[in-house]
Amino acid sequence: MRIRRLAIMLSVAGNLLSPFLAKTQEPATPVSPHVIEVIAKTFEFTPKEIHVKAGERVQIKLHSVDRAHGLKLSLYPEGASEDGSPGLVFEHPQDEAKVDKHHDRVIEFRAVRPGTYDFKCSVQCSMGHGHDRMTGKLIVDE
User: Lesser CB count within 10 Å: N end or C end of the chain?
Assistant: First the structure.
């Protein structure tokens, strides 16, 4: 009889506590990425300077207005050795994206390490001089 009462009490206690226990076991809600729209046109990115915070998930939405362009991000901040862990971590190896005229492409990564990261166009322009000016900076703030 005592065992039966104990089993009933444990069952009632479990039912009363289950809503509280379930809440502590739920996975954390994922944080939305910081979305930045970057426009590529001959010899220029807009914006040329992007600021994000360390630890943020970032999506760069690249759009071309006039021809094929590309965007290649440095994985290491300026002045850092490239033999350690990269400061930008990609879920899929895609530190570079190419986009055709009037199309979009999304580059997604986590900005792990504070610092300044260079980016540049990775599609050689056939329109002459000026391609080397198609650069920008991604600044990861603490």
Answer: N
